[in-house]
Amino acid sequence: MPACAPAPRAQARPARDATPAFAPGMTVLLEDSLQVLAGRRVAVITNHTGIDVEGRSIVDLLREDPRARRANIAVVRLFSPEHGIRGDVDHTDVPDAVDPRSGLMVHSLYTRETIPPPDALLRDVDALVFDLQDIGTRTWTYVGVMVYAMRAAARVGIPFVVLDRPNPITGRMEAPLLDSALANPEDPTPTRRGAAFALYPAPLRHGMTMGELARWFAAELRIPAQLTVVAMRGYRRGMWWEETGLRWVVPSPAMVSPLSALVYPALVALEGTNVSVGRGTREPFQRFGAPWLDATGVASAMNELGLSGVRFDAERFTPVNSPDNKFSGREIPGVRIVVEDRDRFQAGRVGAAVLWALRRAHADSLRVNPRTVDLRFGSTAARVALETAADPNEVIDRLQPEVVAFQRRVRPYLLY
Fold it and tell me: Is there a single domain that holds both residue 223 and residue 297?
């Protein structure tokens, strides 16, 4: 941590309990931490994922719950991230709109790029509240929304309150760590693609909650935020999604299940290639394919690597109305990623194996946008090694010391 980085501020923590039931940060806020917002006009960054175990929205609860009303909290403005306030938009330039339930204007933070809340929309509020569900992968733009919003709150001098949520793929951290040469910690502009998710050297599977990420980014990027994280109750780092009791709400159109979230970091780099990742099917990010793919040969080569907790099956699938415009309406050969043991499954290692197998079998057909792949996979050197037939297990093994060092660096910011 830089010597002049601000120390993490005091956190609103849930009370100790021998066997506490799980509760997300929004529930803890209402039960015993409303003092952080009492008497304030607040703006909220959220979407349909900002719910409690009973499916109630943070916006509705802050406006209607008797405890919030007694605390004289006024929600005056809403902001939404990529995919919109209801999570059903899968394109750029998401427009502003009126929330039909509250009647409040929802200001979009996703136009051509993820953008921060404009200072002009924060100067008449007393606090900015953040409640969005992360999926545990470095490339998720909701994390960028949080960092840019934290900067905006610091600029106008208002508190930034994060209502913490689980990491649905646990606290495990996996290589590759993002190359520092690819990282872009500055505020985004419309011309810098990748600014929202290539923020700072972090593992592909980062292993932290949103609240922990906020604490780490505030210190590492020297953001002078008045940061409060309302921690969850009853959360453990090894918890899987269904153990929390929260209902899975699809955070984006292609993230249909916790299983897709688990496999997503293995395939996200293929967004920069001419290979489908199953968008437009019922199981996106659990398969990949292309018209020219030797599915049987590629699946066999990957199975021979002996990767833990997973097998690869040849199949055929048809993307329907695929938002990435890859082979929509066309049946293509593909490889299905079958997770047999999620505790042993290593997404980064599988991702390396996929890139290796595709290049090995289809050097003439595979098209790679190096910049796009590198921003997602995280390592230019690793990508080049895989393209030149280096053993994918050895490639990932060489990257592991960086992840171990990262785990040590972020330990002071972990809450659970």
Answer: no
Q: Is residue 130 domain-shared with residue 51, that is, in the same domain?
A: yes
Give pTM, 2 decimals: 0.91
Residues 214 and 294 in one domain: no
Tokens linked to 284: 């996106």
The two tokens of residue 46 are: 């959220």
Number of Cβ within 10 Å of residue 134's Cβ equals: 24
Q: How many domains does the chain have?
A: 2
* Domain identity same for 228 and 89: yes
Residue 244 domain flag:
yes
Domain boundary residue, one of 221, 250, 279: 250
Per-residue tokens: 250: 């699809």
What tens digit of pLDDT does each residue of 38-88 get? Answer: 999 999 999 999 999 999 999 999 999 999 999 999 999 999 887 667 655
Range of the domain at 135: 25-172+207-250
Whether residues 225 and 79 fall in one domain: yes
